[in-house]
Amino acid sequence: MPTTEVKAPIDAPRGLAGVIVTETQLGDVRGTEGFYHYRQYSAVELATARTFEDVWYLMFHGELPDAAQLAAFRAETAALRTLPAAVRDALPALARAGALSGPLAGLRTALSLLGATAGFRPLYDIDAGRRRADALAACAAVPTLITALHRLGQGLQPVEPRADLGHAANYLYMLTGDEPEPEQVRAIEAYLISTIDHGFNASTFTARVITSTGADLAACLVGAVGALSGPLHGGAPSRALDMLDAIGTPDRIDSWICDRVRRGDRIMGFGHSVYRTEDPRSRMLRGIAERFGGPLVEFAVQVEARVEELLAELKPGRELHINVELYAGVVMELCGLPREMFTPTFCAARVVGWSANILEQAEDSKIIRPAARYVGPPPPQPLPVVAPL
């Protein structure tokens, strides 16, 4: 009788750092040189020269659209911004329930409801065309869900989306109820584009793991949102600004940072699991912030320069440089976004990257099923005798 060879488990580093788990055509992060790309284009160049819809199309279709394709894509996605009645009617209760947790808590439930209402079926059971349709519907609806939940939580009525505005402008309009200034739109659009995708981060990997089970698209996105909500992933931009507030003045930078480093605290806005140089997203966002100018920007630049010096002294060889969080927070603050909306705004962009990864993963029917090394008491142990009552 033939026997099946059992392969020995492969040891992997803690956190799966650097482990290749699949192949992708969507992009990559090259941490030692401070570069990342979406498909064949520099992500930073796309953020500075193209619209959000251009890059959304690129991630879904593998090429940048021409003028006619872009116009058709804008019309297609804008028409999907309006929520189904069943979802819209449930949002006040979700906002009340998530009053202390914020819009992302409500978004998880709202996405599940959206998927059920729209008839999302398991990805395993549908073809590529239906998967794309579900992904477009979810990506277009997420900004509407996020802004509606935020406004309801503030005692305000949601603002209905406008099909005549681009993705970034419409997002700001639904958030505030006012048509935004062009410089605000361009700044937020650049930020949104720069955060669409970023390698196999925790939330993207989560989405792909769930996709590998054949689950529906909404289930995959709910898992990704849950991963993003953690302060070590998507929850850091507001905390980086809180750090600036806590430091307060330039003369307090050294004492505040040194005290936190000695206590073993993480310095929000600095250090990255992949980059060993300056985060290219931070470089771009610093430039945007400096075009706005003002005391907040000046102080952020001072803090950045001094913290980099202090971390080099206190943690030599660790290569702890600025990451996207600090200037992402500064740019969003300058554009009038409340801090509780920083991570949801991140989510409004990253949902496109998640969805592109979901569509790619759905083409592979192999379930993702790693192993763990057991380190508990050696089994089997004899069961303890239970004394009779």
In short:
This protein is mostly helical and 389 residues long. Helix content is 55%, strand content 3%. The protein has a three-stranded antiparallel sheet.
Report on the architecture of this protein.
By secondary structure, the protein is mostly helical. The protein contains 16 helices and 3 strands. The chain has helices spanning 43-49, 52-61, 67-78, 85-97, 103-117, 128-153, 167-176, 182-194, 202-212, 217-228, 237-247, 253-262, 280-292, 295-314, 324-334, 342-361, and strands at residues 27-30, 35-38, 41-42. The chain has a 3-stranded antiparallel β-sheet. Strand 2 and strand 3 form a beta hairpin. Helix 12 (253-262) packs across helix 14 (295-314). The chain is globular. The termini are far apart. The model has no long low-confidence stretch (mean pLDDT 91). Pathway: Carbohydrate metabolism; tricarboxylic acid cycle. Belongs to the citrate synthase family. It comes from Streptomyces nigrescens. This is Citrate synthase. Pfam families: Citrate_synt.
State the main characteristics:
single chain; about 400 residues; mainly alpha; three-stranded antiparallel beta sheet; 16 helices; 3 strands; Citrate_synthase_sf; Citrate_synthase_bac-typ; transferase; Citrate synthase; Citrate_synth-like_sm_a-sub
Task: Please write out the topology.
Elements: E1 27-30, E2 35-38, E3 41-42, H1 43-49, H2 52-61, H3 67-78, H4 85-97, H5 103-117, H6 128-153, H7 167-176, H8 182-194, H9 202-212, H10 217-228, H11 237-247, H12 253-262, H13 280-292, H14 295-314, H15 324-334, H16 342-361
Antiparallel strand pairs: 1-2, 2-3
